[in-house]
Amino acid sequence: MSDAPGPTAPPPAPVRGPRKATRFAAVLRTPARPGEPLFARAPKRWQRWMPTVVTGVFVVTLLPVTIAVLTNDYKAGGGWAGALGVAQTVPLLLAVTRPLPAWGMVLLADTVGAVLLIHADKVAGHAWPWTPMAIMGYLLLMVCLGLRESVRTLVGVWLVTGAVGVVLGFFAPDGAMNTVALLFVLGGTLLALTGALRGLGDAQQRIAEQEDISEAERSRRTLLEERARIARELHDVVAHHMSVITVQADSAPYRLPGMAEPVREEFAAIAASARESLGEMRRLLTVLRGDGGDGPGGERAPQPGIDRLQQLVEATVRAGQPVELSLGAGAAQGVPPAVDLSAYRIVQEALANVVRHAPGAPTRVSVTRSPGEPDEVLVLVVNGPAGNALVPVETSGTGHGLVGMRERVRLTGGTLDTGPLSEGGFRVAARLPVNPPAEEPS
């Protein structure tokens, strides 16, 4: 019943502008796995293809421009210009999936190009050691690196870039425009920005993983708490019968005078075994209780059963919840204590969830005994739509009540069926066998 759905809210209106920008920022922050293309886990196809398209546009644009500028402006040889243009631009295609190897190849090509341009005819008055085209391609690599690699790797890339530029600066040709500082500053800025986005994405991913772990731990803790509660109640039921056995066995010699000595010893052994079993159960209960949260004597209180459902329903009606009870003839006769208690607790939890999640909804409770074989207690709780109830239906349930119901039904060897109804509302149906089949001895 805890999972009962509330009224369907109207779909939110589409948000334009800022919402789209937020979604794209989330795509930028999503870290890519090693060997995985950038934005590979983006929700839309165009977002997944965007890094490849942008890189392809850079290569197609920079390749002819690099060859033309090296040939016409720097007066480098046509063969060298073509080779440098290919070496400095084509590796950019690798940056989408493996930016670190691509950076190594491009840096090597740019360094070789800078050395070759030292002796170019018209290097004076032009950018050196990094040409404008080389800077554009290098900055694209910085973006790809920042969105994928760790902070340590980014710092290493930045320092190596600066070190190579400083070494080349000692061989700068006369009249050339030194671009070492320009690439060092621009590259460091892009690495810092994209690295911060990547770090934010990593942090959000770790938070989401911790939330998943916390939710799993909460579910596990709820299940364990419910099992401990059931174990305490089962202790009360079994302890009563064991106490009766102990009293009957101890009093048998006085109630049946003239009993033979072997028979007396047998009754004494039965009483001793019953007392030992009671002691073991109390020790187990102490372990299950753990924190001692139950008040003194609470575990010894008489446990309710089917015969007290009328009182439960009346109390719920007094709380303002319309409930009808249909109690079948003989439903509580000859029912084992575990089944009797489980039936009561299932109805109690179902009604509590109706009050919590669907206040004002008409509810029908039915507890009957199935005729013939197998002999079962049938528990059915159905609540309808809340109608004109003024209290809004709560939809923040955790589902912990269903956990307890399933554990109780499993304890008695029965079955549980829960779920929403097509016309609205929720249903809980349980079948609790009165005489479950005995387990085969192992």
Structural class: alpha/beta
Rg: 39 Å
Instruction: Note the overall shape.
Output: elongated
Strand order, biggest sheet?
3-4-5-7-6
The biggest beta sheet, please?
A: 5 strands, mixed
Overall helicity: 55-70%
What percentage of the residues does DSSP assign to strands (E)? Answer: 5-15%
How many strands?
7
Number of H- or I-type helical stretches = 11
- List the helices and strands in order: HHHHEHHEHHHEHEEHEE
N-end to C-end Cα span = 38 Å
Poorly predicted regions are 1-22, 291-299, 387-400
How many structural units, i.e. domains?
A: 3
Average pLDDT level: 79
SSE arrangement:
Blueprint (H helix, E strand, L loop, with lengths): L17 H12 L15 H28 L5 H12 L9 H19 L9 E2 L3 H15 L4 H19 L7 E2 L1 H76 L5 H29 L19 H10 L4 E5 L9 H21 L5 E7 L6 E8 L16 H13 L2 E6 L5 E8 L9
Parallel strand pairs: 1-2, 3-4
Antiparallel strand pairs: 4-5, 5-7, 6-7
Helix pairs in contact: 2-3, 2-5, 3-4, 4-5, 5-7, 6-7, 7-8, 7-11, 9-10, 10-11
Pfam families: HATPase_c, HisKA_3
Protein name: histidine kinase
EC number: 2.7.13.3
